[in-house]
Amino acid sequence: MLGFLQQPVMVTAEVNLNMVALTAVGLLSRLWQLAYPRAVVFDEVYYGQYISFYMKRIFFLDGSGPPFGHMLLALGGYLGGFDGNFLWNRIGAEYSSNVPVWSLRLLPALSGALSVPMAYEIVWELGFSHCAATGAALLLLIENALITQSRLMLLESVLIFFNLLAVLSYLKFCNSQKHRPFSPRWWFWLVLTGVACSCAVGIKYVGVFTYLLVLGVAAVHAWHVIGDQTLSNVRVLCHLLARAAALVVLPVLVYLLFFYIHLLLLCRSGPHDQIMSSAFQASLEGGLARVTQGQPLEVAFGSQVTLKNVFGQPVPCWLHSHQSTYPMIYENGRGSSHQQQVTCYPFKDVNNWWIVKDPGRHQLVVNNPPRPVRHGDVVQLVHGMTTRLLNTLSGHPRGLRDPALPSLDIWALHATSALSSPPSAIPGSGNPRGSSPFCPHSQSRHDVAAPLSPHAQEVSCYIDYNISMPPQNLWRLDIVNRESDTDVWKTILSEVRFVHVNTSAILKLSGVPLPDWGFRQLEVVGEKLFRGYHESTVWNVEEHRYGRSQEQKERELELHSPTQVDISRNLSFMARFSELQWRMLTVRSDDSEHKYSSTPLDWVMLDTNIAYWLHPRTSAQIHLLGNVVIWASASLATLVYALLFIWYLLRRRRRVCDLPEDRWLRWVLAGALCAGGWAVNYLPFFLMEKTLFLYHYLPALTFQILLLPVVLEHISDHLCRSQLQRSLFTALVVAWFTSACHVSNMLRPLTYGDRSLSPSELKALRWKDSWDILIRKY
Amino acid sequence: MLCATSRLLAAREASALPAHPRGRAPAPRSRRRELHFPGHPELPPGDFLVGRFTKPSVPTGRRVILRKGRMPPAAGGGLAGSELRPRRGRCGSQAARAAGRDVATEAATARSPKRPALPSSRRFEAAGRWALLALVTLTSFASRFHRLDQPPHICWDETHFGKMGSYYINRTFFFDVHPPLGKMLIGLAGYLSGYDGTFLFQKPGDNYEHHSYMGMRGFCAFLGSMLIPLAYLTVLELSRSLSAALLTAALLTFGRVVSEEPPEEAALSRYLRGQRVLWSWCEAALGRFREQQDTEPRAEHGSKGGWTDTGCLTLSQYILLDPILMFFIMAAMLSMVKYNSCANRPFSAPWWFWLSLTGVNLAGALGVKFVGLFIILQVGWNTLSDLWHLFGDLSLSMVTLGKHLTARILCLIVLPLALYIATYAVHFMVLNKSGPGDGFFSSAFQARLSGNNLHNASIPEHLAYGSVITVKNLRMAIGYLHSHRHFYPEGVGARQQQVTTYLHKDYNNLWIIKKHNSNSDPLDPSLPVEFVRHGDIIRLEHKETSRNLHSHYHEAPLTRKHYQVTGYGINGSGDSNDFWRIEVINRKFGNRIKVLRSRIRLIHLITGCVLGSSGKVLPKWGWEQMEVTCTPYLKETLSSIWNVEDHINPKLPNISLEVLQPSFPEIMLESHMVMIRGNNGLKPKDNEFTSKPWHWPINFQGLRFSGANDTDFRVYLLGNPVVWWLNLLSIALYVLSASVFAVAVQRGAHLPVEVEGLSQVLLRGGGQLLFGWMMHYFPFFLMGRVLYFHHYFPAMLFSSMLTGLLWDTLLRLCAWSLASYPLARCVHVLGILSLLLGTAYSFYLFHPLAYGMVGPLAQDPRSPMAGLRWLESWDF
């Protein structure tokens, strides 16, 4: 019973002091004076806003990356008790006392510090010596650019941490695969790989490249498992399923989880609401939800509605009309219908209200009970304030042809003569440029072309000039999402298109701002050539109420009054997730030039730097500036690795094996992960069109640095033939490492920004002409 | 891996010899493994024959592969009778001939299923093969030449490519985003067929009248018709199965739709319009351009072309680049496959022939459109893996390997490059007259063109103080540095004189170079001439208004981060903000500055910013000219680089501009830069319906060519949905079956010989086709430019070939697994037949699309096409 007491309780602990020492030094280097400078440094101005949003739980949209990174930074703020009250508007602005700078910068600094021992572990797990592993860790430790980036509220160090974690845990998993598959240890590392990968992707989209690399290596290894004929089929299947679950399914779930938490946290409406759909906005507290609270759900004949364009590019806007008419003749000589303008207006306005009218009846109020509008119904849209009907014209009655003279001119002639304008104003006739936008060979129909998109029809509110043109104001309602929803037109939820009955043109936002005569509002046209689906032809009802007043005056009052009634609606998480993710990917930041932007080619040899911060009075400054010796030698190591690899590969093909099989496999795996990690994190930037900065290179650089000791050890083990050579080489390596430390120390003032340097010292540090080091002129 | 196909196939031919005629009896493995010991006494006669004929001609490459075991047997082992028999390519028979005696015949005999009746059946079979080829070719020619002259007016994009053909005949210089070969060929065809280049090709729908256009159409139709026999031969070579090849040909004949070019051109003209590429001295040409610009958006959707078919007719009927491009792509593919089959006889005449033909076709593909690059990559990959296999063959000496490598470098790199450059040489040689394309190129380039005002002009060579100059921006369609007597309006920076860029030649473009510190008249004859040198501090005085080019710390009117540039001062006296440092790119300090050739930057002395144009159009107060700013970011972008064009200085001797003319490599480089920029300029706008790559394989929506209404003659470009969806299904099915086979092999499963043969066809031949499809499809996802449906057609060729090969193989597998049932043999035949009939029927269904139609729209239930509108997004 008490047998266990008969044995002493033994604890045997092995402590790798190397690791402990490295961790300690790493923490020291990253955490030392972390709260200095107490001012906004470079991109903190950017991430800081989002931290504030999290603290205030206000919804925002940031296209630069998924929310996990922002959330981690916000976690620091949460732990430090930040209330979110700081205006992040200027780099260099002093933090007020309520900003917990230290805790905000803590998480990135910790991840930067932990990357150091992880580098050690990775090289060791790759099967290289402790010496090489220590070397890799030390190089990461003294790399100035990594130190700078880790000590601020920035995401690169966290991204690097998870990249390294993914690689490390995959290696650990791989090594335990050889001994005991399906053991707890095996599962732990496998699952950790998947989680780390999705964390990396969750911080920045570029994390996906590391994920793909790990996935690729895992696929190759899985292929070997398939080929292993000592395993039974069932066991192989188990292996494959376990990997698929942990490396594909799990990351997807974790990624969704980030968004779930993100949406859970951000529940209040904020400045970026406008970009999202009405349904999404309605799901946030305040903002639209308050406006639309209590609206009737189903749109009925007689309803008063505002119609928002679903696409909302270039800006979200509502269908709008106002008293002004289209100018009779445009600048290029074409004519218009001279009827009331219909535009899309990006602000809430009483002129955005439209009344849905049944063409068969004259009333503009809702019956009791309300008669809902369904898919396929024909409606008229009455502009609330002017009581004019939404109209688009096909210039000719059906079947009538006048091939000799484009009918636009006839129509313009009619219009102008009816208005008794001077004959010289007749547009188009005799002017080849005026008529050319109309394709002369599709002569059966000539329409009044939209002002700025001549291939589409003009949309107007019809003014009866009492000429032979009858109004064509019938629109067929086409509910796009009737399959997923119902075929009854619903506020916010239904996405509808308006198809013109006479011409089957579709009401579309062309997105072109009108000239001054149109008050720079956006052009709305009738698209008649393309009848496929595009979001710019889709509209949804945002504000809605049942019209009660028959008289125009009363109705105007009614339109000015706010809507009442109440329904709350909830979107499912997946709908919100997919909308948010899609908007994040498509939202475009106007890629402006930046003084410190650079091209990928500048990065390899560190031809550029970024000035992060300058002390307001002294010349103490922080730069993102790497350790040149490390950067150059890491690039050189990659080159050497590639050459050696090709050389060995070719020789092996000719059956000359320079390396024993296990050494060769180790060498290949190290290359695949380190050189491959560098390549996948670097080369894609050549294809990217956004503004690029030096810090984008840091993840790639980290992998490159890991490769450096691997190559050095390989050279010393395999290419130095005699003991003498080996000693010489070791001496060289030591000298090189000393110089790297020296350089790191010299650049230290620019890394920590703690010491003010004299102009001559600063000039002395400007080793490359392309470096931009700030020198105060006194 | 892919490239080994043919060699394996060849090996298979050999190894299959001794097998039982029906191929059902598994040949003993050991025996096959011994194939490489030709002298083995116990070898059966067949093996001995093979051995003898193998040894001299196919040395080691093949042997090594044989040694690896897993010898693929004849594909499908004679299931479908004669069709199945491995076809012996030209190389094969030549090999046999080379081996002397009657071995070849004997070998063939030995292989034939019915040994006794052999010679005649073989002849019959060969005849059948040729007859089928002839039939396929005939059908394809008939379908494309049918109604070739209809309609007798400009269709769709003919307006562009026909016009470009005319330009070649008239020798007028023009600009296009594609390389010149395709248009040159069109021009040549027109020239040879008696077209005189006088037709204007103004807009779609113009009648050709008496002009001879059939030559050009016929040429395109001819190349388009060749696609199908090429595909037939390629699949035949890859799969050795007539039925697969026939199926492919049918799919292509009935399934491919014709594509044309115009939307892209429309986008180009829109781009041009956006950029306002109007050059004053080619106003006339530009008038034409403008008309185009206005018609184009419409033309995108309307022309009276005949229907391009849902069945492949019309693409080739019109004067377009696509048939030419696809012809070269397919020809390159075929010659690559053929040369792979010749791998067992390296350095023989056919081997050289096919290898160099591959190179020629690659040059052709790249010379027509830049997407030809994808087939180059495919061939490159194939060559690399081929070399890799050779390299692993220890019996080949390094010298032999060196020869292999050199041969490939010669034929696949040097030869295509030479041909490609040659097309440009011809292009520039032919087009020696000034035309609508001048304005896209640099001033130095224009000096080459007769009729251009820079041609044969003579101006002083080096800039000197006192020179009157015009300064032109190097970026396309920006124009000259310009100023005029108007101020920036209130609220836009300082209220000083506007400085803009302007595209037209004008007196307000003239500037005088002055020294920064003296206002003396440098033209005073008593003073010596002083040249401007790199790094000098200068002042630029506007000649008409005598104000200095000036900048200061005010926001530029449109680009907020840049500084405003103004004209300042009275009669040339201003302040120190008028000083600019003139720098020449890539030159040493102190050098003189050359007219036309020197690329200069003007750096503002006080603020350190660089003079540039943002390319943004100013509002009405700026006369819609383009904004000039001083940018504080010192990156070397083209918009901040200028060159001096006109230069007047009476004190200097004039030299002929010919001295400054660029050399051929410079012309090449420049025209490529211009083309790349033109291509990058084709960006889609917001709110515009654009085709996305994912639309294409599912045939999501077609392209409206003309006629929106029911009374119009409507043209709608849409793939035959049956064929396209079958292709899509086949790709999925292929990936599935290929991975099943691959996993089975990796698990070490022992496949029956027939299945193994089929799996080899599937993995190797199909792999090449799948790779081709991916190479011609996926890169489009990365492209930022405007994309159109017709970009998918090269990929579609590959996917159709894959479909043919896949279904043939699967049906054979099916037939094999059902072999115990009496009907087994029919499964394959019936399957192929039903597929053939199915595609033919679907073609019949959709053929109105191919020939154009008038009548109610398909949305209208009365329309005969109403039932065929299977997708909402189809718009016919």
From TrEMBL, chain A:
It catalyses: a di-trans,poly-cis-dolichyl beta-D-mannosyl phosphate + L-threonyl-[protein] = 3-O-(alpha-D-mannosyl)-L-threonyl-[protein] + a di-trans,poly-cis-dolichyl phosphate + H(+); a di-trans,poly-cis-dolichyl beta-D-mannosyl phosphate + L-seryl-[protein] = 3-O-(alpha-D-mannosyl)-L-seryl-[protein] + a di-trans,poly-cis-dolichyl phosphate + H(+). GO terms for biological process: extracellular matrix organization. Pathway: Protein modification; protein glycosylation. Keywords: Endoplasmic reticulum, Glycosyltransferase, Membrane, Repeat, Transferase, Transmembrane, Transmembrane helix. InterPro entries: ArnT-like_N, MIR_dom_sf, MIR_motif, PMT-like, PMT_4TMC. It is a multi-pass membrane protein. Its EC number is 2.4.1.109. One of its GO terms (cellular component) is dolichyl-phosphate-mannose-protein mannosyltransferase complex. The chain crosses the membrane at residues 58-79, 127-147, 153-174, 186-203, 209-228, 240-265, 628-650, 664-687, 693-715, 727-747. Its main location: endoplasmic reticulum. It is found in: Endoplasmic reticulum membrane. GO terms for molecular function: dolichyl-phosphate-mannose-protein mannosyltransferase activity. Residues 296-359, 484-544 form the MIR domain. It comes from the Eukaryota. Residues 422-447 are annotated as: Disordered. PANTHER family: DOLICHYL-PHOSPHATE-MANNOSE--PROTEIN MANNOSYLTRANSFERASE, PROTEIN O-MANNOSYL-TRANSFERASE 1. Belongs to the glycosyltransferase 39 family. Transfers mannosyl residues to the hydroxyl group of serine or threonine residues. Coexpression of both POMT1 and POMT2 is necessary for enzyme activity, expression of either POMT1 or POMT2 alone is insufficient. Essentially dedicated to O-mannosylation of alpha-DAG1 and few other proteins but not of cadherins and protocaherins. This is Dolichyl-phosphate-mannose--protein mannosyltransferase. It comes from Bos taurus (Bovine).
TrEMBL record, chain B:
The chain crosses the membrane at residues 214-235, 318-339, 351-381, 405-426, 722-745, 766-786, 792-811, 823-846. It is a multi-pass membrane protein. Gene3D superfamilies: 2.80.10.50. Its main location: endoplasmic reticulum. GO terms for molecular function: dolichyl-phosphate-mannose-protein mannosyltransferase activity. Belongs to the glycosyltransferase 39 family. It catalyses: a di-trans,poly-cis-dolichyl beta-D-mannosyl phosphate + L-seryl-[protein] = 3-O-(alpha-D-mannosyl)-L-seryl-[protein] + a di-trans,poly-cis-dolichyl phosphate + H(+); a di-trans,poly-cis-dolichyl beta-D-mannosyl phosphate + L-threonyl-[protein] = 3-O-(alpha-D-mannosyl)-L-threonyl-[protein] + a di-trans,poly-cis-dolichyl phosphate + H(+). Residues 14-49, 69-120 are annotated as: Disordered. Residues 460-516, 529-585, 590-647 form the MIR domain. It comes from Bos taurus. Its EC number is 2.4.1.109. It is found in: Endoplasmic reticulum membrane. Signal peptide: none annotated. Transfers mannose from Dol-P-mannose to Ser or Thr residues on proteins. PROSITE patterns: MIR. CDD domains: beta-trefoil_MIR_POMT2. Residues 14-28 have a biased composition (Low complexity). This is Dolichyl-phosphate-mannose--protein mannosyltransferase. The keyword Magnesium does not apply. GO terms for cellular component: endoplasmic reticulum membrane. Keywords: Endoplasmic reticulum, Glycosyltransferase, Membrane, Repeat, Transferase, Transmembrane, Transmembrane helix. SUPFAM superfamilies: MIR domain.
